[in-house]
Amino acid sequence: MEKFRAISRASILGVLGNVFLLFMKGLVGLLTGSQAMIADAFNSAGDIFSSIMTFLGNRIASKPSDEDHHLGHGKAEYIYSLLISIAMGFMALQVFGSSLQSLLEGKRYSFTPWLVVVCLATIVIKLLLYLYTHALNKKYKNLLLEANSKDHRNDCVLTFLNLIACLFSFAGLFFVDGLVGMIFAGWILLSAIKIFKESYDVLMDRALDEEEREKVISLVTSHKEVRGIQHFNATPVGYQYQISFTIYVDGTLSTFESHEIANHLEKEIGKTFPEIYLTVIHVNPCEVKREKKKKPSTNTNKKKN
User: Fold this and answer.
1) What's the pTM value of the predicted model, to 2 decimals?
2) Using H for helix, E for strand and C for coil, what is the string for the chain?
3) Residue 177 class from Cβ within 10 Å (0-12 exposed, 13-18 middle, 19+ buried)?
4) Phi-psi category of 278—alpha, beta or left, where left has phi over 0 and alpha has psi -120 to 50?
5) Contact predicate 272/219, CB 8 Å
6) What is the distance between the alpha carbons of residues 97 and 101, in angstroms, rounded to a whole number?
């Protein structure tokens, strides 16, 4: 399937790009003692883990349904997204602690033009990865792609802050380095919390949001054959939903006619809402009140002239 192949390519590119950046940032950070650069290197290490998790989660999620998994393996991407968020949160706390210590102790480090070169290289590489994964996410609507896309975007912003810290260090203002490291940590932690919440909601079978639910119901009730709708349920299946509900139709219709209404609705919902993977409609008969036809007058008494 093209979608899963595209996600695999994005994750492999992410791993290769971040391995290169990790090596550069780690080497320059250790040689200069820049806390912001070391924090940026930790961030790249987390990105490598995220890309690997994306690849593995996508590989499992792409498997079709089988006898043990009737609804497929789509939730695998949310399990792996959950792991990504936990790893990101742990890394953020580690970076925050070391950056705070650096700020309080007033640590200094040696400025070198290589700090600026690494920052600029990171911004260019991450911007290209962001544009690529963002375009794929707009096309396929995948949480793993969304997490990676946001991560690449965040890295561009945070590395720009790192660049500012490097320039401040050239002017002897070393405290900015610790502040930037703490900002790095805070941003990473917020991103981790958001990904964790999105993944947790799906794994806990969060219902279709109210706006989408009302759109589906509005489409169904717009058909005059449908006299009522009840028992609306939605279950997430990977990045999509399976929905089921009961419709009430004229009880005088034949079984074939009433089920044709349901079949038509199922197809229409599938075409209108790409996020809905499967629609199951149960049909119940109901009594429909009809206006009684007026009988023609039988009065034969005519007025005589």
Assistant:
1) 0.61
2) CHHHHHHHHHHHHHHHHHHHHHHHHHHHHHHHCCHHHHHHHHHHHHHHHHHHHHHHHHHHHCCCCCCCCCCCCCCHHHHHHHHHHHHHHHHHHHHHHHHHHHHHHCCCCCCCHHHHHHHHHHHHHHHHHHHHHHHHHHHHCCHHHHHHHHHHHHHHHHHHHHHHHHHHHHCCCCHHHHHHHHHHHHHHHHHHHHHHHHHHHHHCCCCCCHHHHHHHHHHHHCCCCCCEEEEEEEEEECCEEEEEEEEEEECCCCHHHHHHHHHHHHHHHHHHCCCEEEEEEEEEEECCCCCCCCCCCCCCCCCCC
3) buried
4) beta
5) yes
6) 6
Which residue segments constitute the domains of the chain, with CATH numbers given?
Answer: 2-203 (1.20.1510.10), 210-286 (3.30.70.1350)
Tokens in use for 14? Answer: 């992410």
Rounded distance between C-alpha atoms, residue 201 and residue 88, angstroms? 18
What letter represents residue 265's amino acid? L
pLDDT in tens, 127-185: 999 999 989 888 887 777 777 787 788 788 778 877 887 788 777 777 777 787 787 78
Nearest partner of 51 among 5, 10, 4, 2, judged by Cα: 10
Q: Can you read off the two tokens belonging to residue 80?
A: 């792996």
- pLDDT tens per residue, range 35-60: 767 777 877 887 787 778 777 877 77
